[in-house]
Design goal:
Layout lengths: L2 H19 L3 E9 L2 E9 L2 E9 L13 H17 L5 E11 L5 E10 L8
Parallel strand pairs: 3-4
Antiparallel strand pairs: 1-2, 2-3, 4-5
Length: 124
């Protein structure tokens, strides 16, 4: 497995452990539809939560820079495809989890719940 894939997998595992510890039920991991992917699909209460995980190993890199308008549009389109394919009718929430280098070589996890609201209309 390539180094960036191992880093991403380690970050997603850390994110899953964090979410479970905070009351989320994990429904899916790495769900794909064509070229779109959802890192984590979880449930919390009456909400279906779509979680994007960004893991960085280089200090000083702001993972928020990776969440572009195009990335948000792809997340919304993926979530819509997931909801349609599974015939689900839940409230939807989009969360972000950033994992970055912390003190003493440990990883730091930041969770932004309800990070953004989907636009009323998505554009291809």
């Amino acid at each position: 497995m390539a180094q960036h894939n191992e880093t991403g997998s380690k970050g997603e595992n850390m994110a899953v452990n964090y979410l479970v510890a905070h009351g989320y039920d994990i429904v899916e991991r790495n769900w794909r539809m064509n070229h779109l992917e959802l890192d984590i699909v979880a449930r919390k209460g009456n909400r279906l939560v779509f979680v994007e995980v960004k893991t960085r190993t280089i200090p000083g890199f702001d993972p928020l820079d990776a969440i572009t308008h195009k990335k948000m549009r792809n997340l919304v389109n993926s979530a819509n495809g997931y909801m349609q394919q599974c015939s689900l009718n839940f409230e939807v929430q989009f969360d972000l989890i950033f994992i970055t280098p912390g003190e003493e070589g440990k990883l730091h996890l930041e969770h932004i719940a309800d990070a953004f609201y989907p636009p009323m209309k998505t554009y291809s």
